[in-house]
Amino acid sequence: MSDLQVSLIIIGIIIIIGVAVFNWVQQLRYRRKIESTLDRKQDDALFDQVNDHRSSEPHERIEPQLDKNFFLKESSQKSTLSGKTSDATEKGGVIGSRTETQDSATAEPQSINEKYDNRSNYIATISCDTVIPHTELNTLLQRKFDFNKPLVWLGKKEKSSSWEEIVTGLNTDNMGYISLKGCLLLADRSGPIREIDLSMFRDTVQDFAAQINATAECPDIVLSHEQALLLDKFCADVDVMIGINIISKDEGAFVGTKIRALAEASGFKLDPDGLFKYKDENNHVLFTLTNYESEAFMPDKMKTLTTRGVTFLLDVPRVANGERIFDQMAHLAKIFSNTLGGIMVDDNRVPLSENGLARSKQQLINIQTSMKQNNIIAGSANALRLFT
Fold first, then answer.
1. Backbone dihedral angles phi then psi of residue 343, each to the nearest 5 degrees
2. Under the phi-then-psi rule, with left for phi > 0, alpha for psi from -120 to 50, and beta for the rest, what region is 10?
């Protein structure tokens, strides 16, 4: 082997080592940027990657499991929630599947900037010196479903004006927007956004801006995708449903007609999807009543239906003022138990005491407090988008 060949081999090895070191340094730089951008210095569980309950394996979308130590700081508060899963075919606890979608009570009204913040959304901005032509704008708006996550476009008519949501399907001839802001959700109950979808959206924005001679500002794709993964992990941890089961005594059964009469007298409404829904004055679902067994409460089958029990369910991240709503649900559960001649139990069919209800209520408070500390208010418009 000649000296030239040996030299080339050594140079090649040096280059490979250099590239590996460069990639390692870049990765450290990205993570430091994320920590700085997301105010890592705060006690922020959303972006805390060093928690005992977090797995070191890559995050996968699985049935969420709530680790009580994540939320509770006092050892006396550690307990398991009572109830059942949102999946009617499985009763392994109160942890709800992130695939179920419900409406719920909303929190205090949010500003449009709070509703579409950069912690939960990939936000790209388009600025133009003149009014954006409505034909091009319509074409851009029609692509809102191309990126596999909810996308909302905001517009400004003047530099000093406020952002307003652009509703697709309306005539945009006279809207006269000079600036646009695209807010692409980073995660929902189906999981985090894919990096390829972020790239496609960024390219779409940049191409559109070039077409109309405007400028585009788009966040870094790698950083945004890592932020989406962290956001999704946090949402999976707090995505729970608290339930109260009422079962018949001595292996008896409840009849559908009595369940329906009691539910409707209590303020529930039976929807075609087989759920009794308790709503507020704004038509937001506060909690639901489901069959303890797998069969749904279909309106046309209630006359002949019999079941061993019913279950009250509260979707924690989608309900504002959860403490008050839980008390309301527990009160109705006691009425149902007394009227139907049943007994309130947990998923192991162990009688549910007042202490058990109190522990479940405390868990709910801790979860919603953790959400608030991470700028996700339970029941807010932002939370409803994340937990859909």
1. -140, 135
2. alpha
